[in-house]
Amino acid sequence: MKLNLLIKELNAIEIIGNTDIDIKGVNIDSRLIEDGHMFIAVKGTQADGHTYIKTAIEKGAKAILCEVLPQDIDPNVTYIKIENTESNVGQVATTFYGNPSQKLHLVGVTGTNGKTTIATTLYNLFRQMGHHAGLLSTVVNCIDGKDIHTEHTTPDPITLNCLLKQMADAGCEYVFMEVSSHSIVQNRIGGLQFAGGLFTNITRDHLDYHKTFENYLKAKKQFFDQLPADAFAITNIDDKNGMVMVQNTKAEVKTYSMLKTADFKAKLIECHFEGMYLNINGEDVGVQFIGKFNVSNLLAVYGAAVMLGKPAHDVLVALSMMKPVSGRFESMRSPSGYTAIVDYAHTPDALENVLNAIHEVLNNKEGQIITVCGAGGNRDKGKRPLMAREAVRQSDKVIITSDNPRFEEPQDIINDMMAGLDDQQKRKVITIVDRREAIRTACMLAQKGDVILIAGKGHEDYQDVKGVKHHFDDKEEVAKCF
What residues does 66 pair with on adjacent strands? Predict the structure, then answer.
């Protein structure tokens, strides 16, 4: 693409050099620069891209987009100075890749819990109904059945637009995407055209980044504020901030609820560890998901599918065939008669939801709940004691252990969690730093009819320790115990 076309929508403060040149690629990572690329220097949270301008030029960059011009100007390179590079990366990437989101029905899912389940179930549902579809999620990115590994909930704008172009080129009609609060604040979704947005719920999370709950809420709301008038916004009004999210949106607002009058309404009729029987908008349906929080998730899926033009009855038939997402309330039955559930719950609210779901199924039957959980290192420390209290409140026994300690000492994280408990609560708890040993201990303690919840990692197949990801899979460890 010609450089002058690529920067046409940007408000350039100063341009040095020729803009009538061909640009073969765009990048914010100097290590990925090749001959003929444009390098975008972004002042990131970890490093300032301006310090890598010289490296990018040495690797073949022919154009530099920056906020501060370097002292040494290369006569063979074009420099474009703008006010804020971070907020314009999305626009540059969208333009370079030919506005791929305009060729797709792109639906974004945001909220604290449920994003992966909703986005993945929508992806599977539309493929089940005969459509080519794409998925951008925490677990994996998919292009119509082909899996592509991912590192972040929402990739950087360049990777994102490249993936969307691949999806459009592969004939995808629909793309379902998790939208994280980080990606909204950092303009990673800038320039994308959304057909719709879904709000799940909002509880304490990522305060290590956002600092306050109000900032976190504003980040989520910003996504709906930016939706166009021809899009839809579906919100969960069982969450107290459900209507706050959509109060300034131009999009068509629809609601879903288990408790109130809403456009999409559900009632839980029966619940077992094998699945649930529901009534959705007057029609009965059996599903393979478990727990009230999943009723809410399935309502969001149902609402989005209907808003995308699918007949309501056909959506319910397809929903009845859907399987739960990997590592989300994944139930495993032991030969000796107890049940182990692996779930990604890593916030106090998510832990509460999963434990509530277990109690709903047990329904006062005999059988104890043994919870294995921890908290991630180098993340919001304030939620650690809250998670410990929630686990103790709803469990008969709790084993507190490691969960991606990252660059912190596992015992320090465990101590932070234990600090939230009084002496009586501590009697229910044992601490085992080694997660493998913690899972093994829970399985040894479990009797017939008991339920073990192994929370925090879900689909993840690694432990992040001191910057190294060591292979570790909760489901594999449970299977060994069985």
Answer: 81
At residue 74 the predicted structure's pLDDT band, cuts being 50, 70 and 90, is very high
Confidence bin at 210 (pLDDT 50/70/90): very low
pLDDT digits (tens, 9 = 90+) for 85-141: 998 999 999 999 999 999 999 999 999 889 999 999 999 999 999 999 999 998 889
Q: DSSP characters for 8-43?
A: TTS--SEEES---SB--EEES-GGG--TTEEEE--B
Residue 70 in contact with residue 53, Cβ under 8 Å?
yes
For 50-112, the DSSP string reads GGGHHHHHHTT--EEEESS--SS--TTSEEEE-S-SGGGHHHHHHHHTT-GGGGSEEEEEESS
Please give the domain boundaries of the chain with CATH numbers for all domains.
3-95 (3.40.1390.10), 99-320 (3.40.1190.10), 330-481 (3.90.190.20)
Inter-CA distances, 203 with 206, 346, 377, 401, Å: 10, 12, 19, 23
Are the CB atoms for 344 and 198 separated by under 8 Å? no
Question: In which band, very low, low, confident or very high, does the pLDDT at 153 lie, cut at 50, 70 and 90?
Answer: low
Q: What is the DSSP string of 253-320?
A: EEEEESSS--SEEEEEEEEETTEEEEEETTEEEEES--SHHHHHHHHHHHHHHHHTT--HHHHHHHHH
H or E element, residue 452? strand 451-455
Question: If you search the block for the tokens 């009084």, which residue do you land on?
Answer: 422
What SS3 class is residue 438? helix
The answer to whether residues 293 and 353 touch, using CB atoms and an 8 Å cutoff, is: yes
Q: Is 370 exposed, middle or buried (0-12, 13-18, 19+ CB in 10 A)?
A: buried
Q: What is the pLDDT of residues 442-466, one digit of tens each?
A: 999 999 999 999 999 998 999 999 9
Which residues are within 8 A (CB) of 288 and not within 5 positions of it... i.e. 6 or more apart? 274, 275, 322, 323, 324
CA 472 to chain centre: 21
pTM of structure = 0.85
Specify burial of residue 15 (Cβ count, 10 A radius: 0-12, 13-18, 19+): middle
d(C-alpha 105, C-alpha 308), whole Å: 8
Sheet harboring 369-373: ordered strands across? 330-333, 339-343, 451-455, 369-373, 397-400, 429-431
Cα distance between residue 38 and residue 49, in whole Å: 13
Ramachandran region, residue 159 (left: φ > 0; alpha: ψ -120 to 50; beta: rest): alpha
Categorize the per-residue pLDDT at 209 as very low, low, confident or very high, splitting at 50, 70 and 90.
low
**Residue 266 · residue 277 · CB < 8 Å:** no
Q: Is residue 341 within 8 Å of residue 454, measured between CB atoms? A: yes
Q: Report d(CA 248, CA 243) in Å as an integer.
A: 10
